[in-house]
Fold this sequence. Notes:
This protein is α/β, with parallel strands linked by helices and 469 residues long. The chain has helices at residues 2-19, 36-48, 77-86, 107-113, 129-133, 144-153, 174-183, 191-196, 200-203, 232-247, 260-266, 270-293, 332-343, 355-366, 376-390, 409-422, 457-465; strands spanning 25-31, 61-65, 117-122, 158-161, 186-190, 207-211, 252-258, 298-303, 307-308, 312-313, 399-401, 406-408, 424-425, 431-432, 436-442. The chain has 17 helices and 15 strands.
Amino acid sequence: MKRICQLLLLSLLVAGCASKPQVKYVFYFIGDGMGVNEVIGTNLYNQANGLEPVNFTQFPVVNFITTVSANSLVTDSSAAGTALATGVKINNSVVGVDPDGNPTPNLTEWAHAAGYGTGVATSVGVNHATPASFVAHTSSRNGYEEISLQMIDSPVDFMAGATFLTNRGSGHDAAYFEHKADSAGIAIFKGPGAMGKMDEIDFLKPRILCLSAKAEDSIPYAIDRKEDDTQLADFTDAGIRYLESRFGKKGFFFMIEGGKIDYAGHGNDAATCFQEVNDMAVSVDLALAFLARYPKETLIVITADHETGGLMLGSGRYEMHPDRLARQHASVDALTDQFRAKFFPEGQPFKTPTWDAVKAFFAEETGMWGDVEVSERVEKELKGIYDQTFGKGGDRNLSESNLYSVNFQIVADVVRALDRAAGYQWSFGSHSGSPVGLYVTGACAEEFGTVKDNTEIAPLIAKLAGYTK
């Protein structure tokens, strides 16, 4: 009887929340590639290394959702992004267009039509698949030029990302689209210094675009970050300040993507992946600070478009040692650059490094053969890659490609071996069909407790915030 009364009370609260919209400020975080095991794995990593749990795992509503696209049980980012933005299943590789070719209205369009401010931010290209899903409508996620022009012509008030991605052979570079944005009256701020100096005068400008100060397709991984590098939190902070200043009375919708969690998954790089999850959590902290100021009017929703890499917790033994990942000082991409600089110095004649020299490099940069013991079997496997690379008749350019980078094979294999030694193992380098987490707090959070699929989120947000009649 007590349980029935509790459920009845909850249903009345939910009905009241839905019948009279009270959500004024919406933060919608998407961790690209952030499956359930990526989040749990990050918490294990944090616990082992003296860090706090991932903040959103402590939210009052934690749920799981499915991610299939219209034409595949394994989605890509554009189909999943569109489902999260519109509530409509579409085919893989398409952005904001349903299987019949019709544009799918999205949350930023609904919010704008209702008079709310709108923002879209990401740690990767501003016109990459996920941000594009909240702005554009096109038959190909790779149509970067068309997506860029649609973004520039859109009514979205605040946009942020590393740069404009461009199509090879189009003849246009990122600067071309920056010029188009400037000509359209969009104020552009590049780098954390410029964003930090945005003031009340800038907040009066009709639209703002924030970019990285450096010419890069994505901002650096958190594990590789230098002091002057742009961070996702820079974009998040700038967006909150701008949207609150211009639309504080009415309200706003703000989508923020942690895009490089996916990149690390494609690269099978656990330490880098977990630090990217933690890095997105820094932006979540900014949203939580906003929630503390407006607790009855702010909703924070966090999910993922899909899982990347098929990450497993456990590598065959009934044990895990997440602390070992702390020995890794750089991403697999940065380690490849360091390996090249050390053993293939530019402008100097090549000299074959010894196996001991190669092991010493990895001991210093990853802990392998240092604090992390390497079994005879694993050493034999890695020595085989060394022989294929440097031995007689070897290919010194022996490499491995993933969706976003090309790395020396030996570097990629050593990082995977470190992951296994820590108790993490990757199944492959692409997306999986695993469900992803849904984490919600703030006004009307309890409404999301029964959500089961990614198409249910956008219509529910729109209803709770009053974007739709």
